[in-house]
């Protein structure tokens, strides 16, 4: 039998007002994410010169993930507000998982694309000549498909090993899924940050090493200027991404 739940038990650790305010604030943030990333994708689709930039395809892939993330945040916030404002305390684990599906998939996709961008920078700094001849569109497409697969796998795992006859004490994805699925999710996301930082660190080291080796050459100056501009752009994008995350 599912345990009984009401407002007094549901809001034992956080007040009703705090819960409503936080969830309500997530809606405009989600709308902003949808609009902002839609603008990026429109620019990517409209301007051919933008698509010629080596990392443009990965930026577009990240924009797609963040746009879906924005939609997922809106759905998630509305579903949580529905519980609080309409006393919907007879929610099920399936309700908590399904309403978080879009957000979970998009977040895991964003993590994979972030790693792909870091790998892209590492390859650009380590093997600049091979990097310039590589098919950047195919790399971005492969990264996007793998990211989508990863997100779907997490949703599949969230439905395994749970007791549908029991209600979680709070309607969150982590509380609704099995402990094993939650641990895998947390471990995966804990690894991503240090991994991306390590890849960027290796990229910067190889950039400095390559520039020192080719100091004074015209090719070195040109490559340095181009990659410096790309790195500045990606650094700004990644800073905004991690702040919002």
Automatic annotation (TrEMBL):
The chain crosses the membrane at residues 20-44, 56-82, 94-119, 139-164, 184-203. It is found in: Membrane. The keyword Membrane applies. Residues 36-245 form the G-protein coupled receptors family 1 profile domain. GO terms for cellular component: membrane. Keywords: Membrane, Transmembrane, Transmembrane helix. SUPFAM superfamilies: Family A G protein-coupled receptor-like. InterPro entries: 7TM_GPCR_Srsx (IPR019424), GPCR_Rhodpsn (IPR000276), GPCR_Rhodpsn_7TM (IPR017452), Mito_rRNA_Mtase_NSUN4 (IPR052322). Its main location: membrane. One of its GO terms (molecular function) is G protein-coupled receptor activity. This is G-protein coupled receptors family 1 profile domain-containing protein. The lineage of its organism: Eukaryota, Metazoa, Ecdysozoa, Nematoda, Chromadorea.
């Amino acid at each position: 039998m599912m345990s009984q739940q009401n407002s007094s038990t549901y809001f034992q650790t956080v007040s009703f007002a705090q819960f409503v305010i936080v969830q309500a604030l997530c809606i405009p943030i989600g709308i902003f994410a949808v609009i902002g990333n839609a603008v990026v994708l429109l620019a990517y689709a409209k301007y051919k010169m933008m698509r010629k930039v080596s990392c443009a395809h990965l930026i577009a892939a990240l924009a797609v993930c963040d746009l879906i993330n924005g939609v997922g945040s809106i759905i998630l916030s509305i579903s949580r507000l529905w519980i609080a404002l309409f006393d919907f305390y007879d929610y099920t684990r399936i309700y908590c998982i399904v309403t978080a599906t879009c957000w979970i998939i998009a977040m895991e996709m964003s993590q994979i694309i972030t790693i792909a961008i870091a790998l892209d920078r590492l390859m650009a700094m380590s093997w600049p000549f091979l990097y310039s001849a590589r098919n950047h569109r195919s790399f971005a497409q492969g990264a996007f498909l793998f990211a989508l697969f990863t997100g779907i796998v997490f949703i599949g795992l969230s439905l395994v090993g749970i007791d549908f006859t029991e209600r979680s004490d709070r309607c969150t994805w982590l509380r609704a899924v099995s402990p094993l699925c939650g641990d895998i999710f947390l471990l995966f996301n804990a690894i991503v940050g240090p991994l991306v930082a390590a890849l960027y660190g290796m990229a910067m080291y190889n950039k400095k090493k390559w520039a020192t080796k080719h100091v004074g050459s015209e090719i070195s100056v040109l490559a340095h200027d181009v990659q410096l501009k790309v790195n500045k752009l990606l650094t700004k994008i990644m800073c905004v991404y991690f702040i919002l995350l």
